[in-house]
């Protein structure tokens, strides 16, 4: 235990997710070594983030203005919405450059354990966006875990009679990974979702 | 990349030692979810730490007042000084409850690569503390690495003609560790520093 403000700082840093007591101590002493203006700038950015951070009024992505860059971009395909849990997921999908449509950020997933139900997510706002018929396709890109699956299932049922194309991202082996290290659920999904090679014979359709 | 203040926060967090881009993102979104007063308190502690943190005028340990709790404590043995590199080392040694003397925090170690020489450490102030003859023993507890060893060697030479007891902390196997995982230097030191069991025969002293 240190005396005074240094210990206060270590305590505060130790509350951050993923920062243990040793890291907190390391960061605190590093800060003491930094130029005062750098530490002030950091404090200011932290201090202002809650007040200045905004969320897009249309899709609830992190935004600097009333609506986000993606929603304002007329070149994006206005007929497809990719539904994700968090803004982080938007960034991850944008990095792939595979998707040129719009997003809808739910603000989490259905999780009874955390007391989070459908009414705690931006689902009503999604329905509003679908009302005028511009959107014809929905891609459900919630996380491939229990909560994400539950949320995707909930949304599928909710939307299924609206005449939309609805799809779920493929589950399977991570690219660049080793098959032998894949967990059994992932490997099972990879079998289930296998694709037939072009020109190969196909199984007879089940009746 | 996010828009605006959220990305600013992620950038600032990513500069902290040991915080990678993924952690920075995780902490940033966690902060957005926290009550505003908690985030403000964190910002304030960071903002004030450089101005409010003080170092003991005697030993250079982190302190809340002009001199630190340890230097002010008359029950501590005033005849022994344990010389360490950083305040973190004081905390580590205090936790052992093995040492009841005073400390002297050098503020680092001699490191030519980092352009750090003896004059950049609080060595002159250590000599001042030794002037009145109260201190009769010095324990050199710098880190067991190249810089720490160089610093201890430098101090040993500097102090050796002053009639003080000077010692260096023992190197050896970490308690609770596995011998097979010890690196060869540590294992070599453990052999070199081995202690004869009480009552056993001793080797003949070398002539």
Automatic annotation (TrEMBL), chains A, B:
Domain Toprim intervals? 79-174
Give GO terms for biological process: DNA recombination; DNA repair
Keyword match Zinc: yes
**Family matches, as SUPFAM superfamilies:** Recombination protein RecR
Q: Which SMART domains match?
A: TOPRIM (SM00493)
From the Swiss-Prot or TrEMBL record, what is one GO molecular function term?
Answer: zinc ion binding
- Function text: May play a role in DNA repair. It seems to be involved in an RecBC-independent recombinational process of DNA repair. It may act with RecF and RecO.
Tell me which family the UniProt entry assigns to this protein: Belongs to the RecR family.
Question: Mind telling me what this protein is named?
Answer: Recombination protein RecR
Organism this protein belongs to: Luteococcus japonicus LSP_Lj1
């Amino acid at each position: 235990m240190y005396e005074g403000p240094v210990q206060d700082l270590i305590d505060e840093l130790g509350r951050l997710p993923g920062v243990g007591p040793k890291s907190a101590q390391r960061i605190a002493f590093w800060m003491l070594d930094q130029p005062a203006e750098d530490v002030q700038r950091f404090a200011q950015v932290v201090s202002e983030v809650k007040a200045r951070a905004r969320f897009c009024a249309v899709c609830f992505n992190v935004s600097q203005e009333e609506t986000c860059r993606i929603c304002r971009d007329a070149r994006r395909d206005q007929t497809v919405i990719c539904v994700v849990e968090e803004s982080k997921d938007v960034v991850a999908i944008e990095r792939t450059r595979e998707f040129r449509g719009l997003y809808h950020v739910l603000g989490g997933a259905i999780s009874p354990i955390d007391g989070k139900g459908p009414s705690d997510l931006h689902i009503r706002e999604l329905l509003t966006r679908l009302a005028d018929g511009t959107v014809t396709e929905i891609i459900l890109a919630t996380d491939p875990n229990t909560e994400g699956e539950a949320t995707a299932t909930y949304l599928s049922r909710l939307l299924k009679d609206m005449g939309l194309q609805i799809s779920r991202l493929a589950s399977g082996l991570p690219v660049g990974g080793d098959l032998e290290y894949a967990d059994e659920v992932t490997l099972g999904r990879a079998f289930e979702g296998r694709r037939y090679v072009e020109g190969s014979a196909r199984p007879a359709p089940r009746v």
